[in-house]
Design a protein that fits this description.
This protein is 27% helix and 30% strand. By secondary structure, the protein is an alpha+beta fold. It folds into three domains: 71 residues, Uridine Diphospho-n-acetylenolpyruvylglucosamine Reductase, domain 2, CATH 3.30.43; 119 residues, Uridine Diphospho-n-acetylenolpyruvylglucosamine Reductase, domain 3, CATH 3.30.465.10; 105 residues, Alpha-Beta Complex (Uridine Diphospho-n-acetylenolpyruvylglucosamine Reductase, domain 1), CATH 3.90.78. It has a five-stranded antiparallel sheet with strand order 6-7-12-10-11, with no helix packed on it. A four-stranded mixed sheet has the order 1-2-5-3. The mean pLDDT is 93. Belongs to the MurB family. Its cofactor is FAD.
């Protein structure tokens, strides 16, 4: 069957974005191999169609109408690439796993835990697909993609070739990467993750520490940490299947130690975590909560009642409403704390 025959016209993307916004793609195609991806891009270029690449739709704010060809990467597969590779810098043993860009992220975390591999267990239940994870440099409870990505394989639209970017090439920063800085230019088809055979035993986050105290667990293993993260996240975050959301809507802002000390005098309960030397990362949810936004609803959108960092869509709304709410929240936090909040989700289409 040709690419043209596989294309779906005026395709609804409402179930392809976790916020549940109504959106329609002019053309849509799910690709299951690199060869099919190349053929789809060739077709789009020959027919003057813009190429729009969609992952799991968990970190995007969709426009109602999307022109061009929307491609979803459904390239699957998980396997161990190398076992027992000596890593002298970490004084441990590591295992490389290669994962298709279309694989579900949480299921991949679950699979790695079943292999007794450490490095991504605290990133459980983050929605989305593996191919989108490096773009946002996703992370939770002390673990980030930048710490486990060995290399990324991607199709580069500018050159029309597949490229491999090693960790240092990816430009990883807090919820950022070269892929995010060059939207639509790299289509990730495969990721190689380097995981450890031995877990990091330190549990630094209060929510997890509290969970283990309640469970009477003093030295949790990888599986117990995974289960704890799942339990904590489910208690605080809404299920996108039941209530539209994109997870954490704002980045936790990073400020200087001097700024933090000044704010701490005014707000003794200020929640923050040490970042790089001389900097502190503030809990954006706490800042929003202090501005009395938690649980508020404005039209078809609102702030989740259990976690102020999560904005939700009750149905029937669009991204214009959500962006207006986000702007009002940003203005409140800026006026109260002199701190700017930056959105995590990206507008789709990207360009």
């Amino acid at each position: 069957m040709s690419i043209e025959q596989k294309l779906q016209k005026n395709y609804s993307l409402q179930t392809s974005n976790t916020l549940g916004f109504s959106a329609f793609a002019e053309y849509f195609l799910a690709v299951r191999s690199e060869a099919e991806l190349v053929a789809a891009i060739d077709y789009a270029q020959q027919n003057d169609l813009a190429v729009r690449v969609l992952g799991g739709g968990s970190n995007v704010l969709m426009a109602p109408q999307i022109d061009g060809l929307v491609i979803r990467i459904d390239i699957m597969g998980k396997k161990v690439l190398h076992e027992g590779v000596a890593n002298r810098a970490l004084a441990t043993e590591v295992v490389d796993i290669v994962v298709g860009g279309g694989e579900n992220w949480h299921e991949t975390v679950e699979w790695s835990v079943a292999q007794s591999l450490s490095g991504m267990e605290t990133m459980a239940l983050i929605p989305g697909r593996v191919g989108a994870a490096p773009v946002q440099n996703i992370g939770a409870y002390g673990q980030e993609m930048k710490d486990i990505v060995f290399k990324v394989r991607a199709y580069q639209l500018e050159t029309g070739r597949f490229v491999e970017l090693f960790n240092d090439d990816c430009g990883f920063a807090y919820r950022d990467s070269v892929f995010k800085q060059s939207p639509g230019q790299f289509i990730i088809t495969e990721v190689v993750l380097r995981l450890s055979c031995h877990q990091d035993e330190s549990i630094r986050y209060a929510a997890l520490q509290s969970y283990f105290r309640d469970q009477g667990i003093s030295q949790p293993d990888i599986k117990q940490i995974f289960n704890a993260v799942c339990a904590v996240r489910r208690s605080k975050l809404p299920d996108p299947e039941l209530l539209g959301n994109a997870g954490s809507f704002f980045k936790n802002p990073v400020i200087t130690q001097t700024q933090f000390d000044q704010l701490k005098l005014q707000w003794p309960g200020l929640v923050a975590y040490p970042e790089n030397k001389g900097f502190m990362k503030l809990a954006a949810g706490w800042l929003i909560d202090q501005c009395d936004w938690k649980g508020k609803r404005v039209g078809h959108v609102g702030v989740y009642e259990k976690q102020a960092l999560v904005l939700v869509h009750f149905g029937g709304g669009d991204r214009t409403e959500l962006l207006a709410l986000a702007s009002d929240i940003q203005a409140s936090v800026l006026a109260t704390f002199s701190v700017e909040l930056e959105m995590e989700p990206q507008l789709f289409p990207f360009v």
